[in-house]
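Appendix B. Chain record.
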Amino acid sequence: MSFITDSSDDPFDAIDSYLRLHLLSSRLVQPNTISLDGIFGKLTNCAWTNLGPFEIADFDAKRLSLIADGKDVFVHGVDKFPRMTDYVIPSGVRIADANRVRLGAHLSDGTTIMHEGFCNFNAGTLGASMVEGRISAGVVVGDGSDIGGGASIMGTLSGGGTEVISIGQNCLLGAESGIGISLGDNCVVEAGLYVTAGTLVRVPDGSTVKAKLLSGKDDLLFRRNSTTGIVEVLLRGDNSSWQGLNEELHDN
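Structure tokens predicted for this chain:
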């Protein structure tokens, strides 16, 4: 039997680490609420197969032995993290390509992960969301938000970043867009626009600020002016073209 005495303590071995990942994918805890610091050092690369995990060092010999016994062996990946769906399938979700969701992803009821969508561990959705882009480690996405095709959200792993990015409710990241700041509720980022913390943004009063000063604020539309090339932020009114998720499409 395995148990965690204090979820704020770092994982102390591989069993503890995998238990924490299972808790996340089983929706018993939310991302960023339990410590996963140092988890990479507790896990080893495995060959994850249709017959379970194998140590890499002698896998070729074991595979030949299994084939000789008439068993087919298919390697899904060589990694420290397996596919979530090999161990946990949360209710009320759709995942078009199981290879793109790691164990430790937190997917709420009503979430759809399309073929090009991806969700890392200790990240995910807090409500019904459409994901066609990448949810990086540490990122959480609010209810009713849409991560467009090829969209990217900066996580806490690449580049040693420590800023945890979140997306509020009823937001839209347009296709091939990206953010390195948090979005509040009812925000839109135009297709193809990447807004990092240092991006200079013209605000409605005509002044220019760094995007990090707008992090987490509600009802904003980020776009690039097609005439001047300047990144602008507008306040979203009642006439916004974003009308939320298609309820029929996302009824899981």
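Further analysis of this model is presented in Appendix C.
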